Amino acid sequence: MDTTLTRRRKIRLGQLAVLIAAVSALEYLARSGLVDAITLAPPSEMFTAMVSLLVSGSILGDLVATTLSVFAAFLLATAVGIPIGWALWRWNALQQVLDPYLIAFYAMPVFALYPLFIAIFGLNRIPIVLIAFFMSIVAIVVNTANGFAKIRDVYHDVGRSLRLSRTQAFVHIYLPAAAPYIFTGLKLGFVYALIGVIASEFILANRGLGFQVAYDYKNFAMGQMYGDMLLVVIIAVCTGVVLTYVEDRLYRRSVSE
Fold it and tell me: 68: Cβ–Cβ under 8 A, 6 or more apart, which residues?
């Protein structure tokens, strides 16, 4: 146990050292004049600009709009993706039929559909949410199906020996056993939803973090633009760290069982 903790502590220290080195290198490049100031602002100035935007409240409306859109797309993808993933596992023939289409859909540039979404729903938040939804759902479907497929035979035997109904077996045996794999899909789905929303806001929105970055760039407000970008990066990194931590806990609990 102590060896494991020591190893994890070393990994965390190594990750921190890489982050400090990267930030220091960027600060040096920007301050030394090796990189043009318009191209790269020092990280310290990015941080100051981000804090100013948050304190003034000018960015809060955009932050709320982006957050609501991300969660709307992610929750919709979760509500649709997990049942589809379960169905693919439950009926193997259905999975074999849909596999080529899932692969093709996964490789398809979803942004190419935005003119269609605008024509149908208008220039509002719905096309943004739909693009993020379609970017998110495939990862959830595939990982959910894989998670159920990896359930060990002994769990099926336990369900049969206890004479559980399909619903009882799903709730008490299959879902907990597949949870680490399902959560991996949810983690990827959330990240894709975040990417989809922010990227869509560059071209489809009149508010949101992505829109604000594009707006500041077009108006040569470089300080505010870098502050917006740093906020997006911090949100993405913090979200990834939290989701990875939960995923690791679920995986370790699954292995110990």
Answer: none
| CA pair distance 166, 87, nearest whole angstrom | 13
Give the closest residue to 94 by CA, choosing from 106, 86, 103. 86
DSSP class of 111: G
How far the first Cα of the chain sits from its last, in Å, is 17
* CA dist., res. 231 & res. 109, Å (int): 26
Cα–Cα nearest to 76, from 142, 149, 126, 143 = 126
pLDDT of 253: 64
- pLDDT of 73: 94
Element (H, E) at 124: none
CA atoms within 13 A on the CB side of 6: 3
C-alpha to C-alpha distance for 207 and 195, rounded to whole angstroms: 16
Beta carbons of 185 and 142 less than 8 angstroms apart = yes
The pair of three-digit structure tokens given for residue 205, joined into one six-digit string: 């929105």
80 vs 157 pLDDT, higher one: 80
Write the burial class of residue 205 (CB in 10 Å: 0-12 exposed, 13-18 middle, 19+ buried). Answer: buried
Domains in the chain, CATH or no CATH each: 1-40 (no CATH), 48-256 (1.10.3720.10)
Give, in order, the Cα–Cα distances in Å from 178 to each of 82, 106, 144, 202. Answer: 11, 22, 7, 37
Nearest to 137 by CA among 198, 94, 212, 82: 82
pLDDT tens digits, residue range 75-94?
Answer: 999 999 999 888 888 887 77
Q: How far apart are CA 136 and CA 74, in angstroms?
A: 7
Residue 52 Cα distances to 45, 152, 227, 235, angstroms: 10, 53, 9, 17
